[in-house]
Amino acid sequence: MNGTGLSLNRAIDLATAELLIFTDDVDIDSRWIHAYWEASRRHPEAGIFGGRVYTQLPPDTPEWFAAHA
Fold first, then answer.
1. pLDDT tens-digit series, residues 1-42
2. Where are the alpha helices (DSSP H) in the chain?
3. Sign for the pseudo-dihedral over CA of 25, 26, 27, 33
4. 23 contacts 50 by C-beta, under 8 angstroms
5. How far apart are the C-alpha atoms of 69 and 56, rounded to whole Å?
6. How far apart are CA 43 and CA 57, in angstroms?
7. 37-54 burial string, b = 16+ CB within 10 Å, else e?
8. Which of 31, 59, 62, 65 is the most exposed place for a label (fewest CB within 10 A)?
9. What's the pTM value of the predicted model, to 2 decimals?
10. Helix (H, G, I), strand (E, B) or coil at 42
């Protein structure tokens, strides 16, 4: 496991919050965190939540890749 994975695992071990939300290098809607908080309140039995991901590819992305993104 790389250093990032070890750091993330350590952070999870030390976390005391009711809800942990992870993301990486994305633009999020201003309501994103609130939506996850509300979902966790409505479904306290759930251990994970997810949602639709919209890709924003750079202009030089090869067409064969963009067609499947």
1. 667 778 889 989 999 998 998 887 788 888 999 999 999 999
2. 3-14, 32-42, 63-66
3. negative
4. no
5. 9
6. 33
7. eeeeeeeeeeeeeeeeee
8. 59
9. 0.63
10. helix
Output the six-digit token pair for 56.
């924003």
Q: Which residues are CB-contacts of 49 (< 8 A; sequence separation ≥ 6)?
A: 36, 39, 40, 43
**Per-domain boundaries in the chain:** 25-69
Look up residue 38 and give its amino acid. E
C-alpha closest to that of 53 among 19, 20, 29: 29
In this structure, how many other beta carbons lie within 10 angstroms of the beta carbon of residue 4? 9
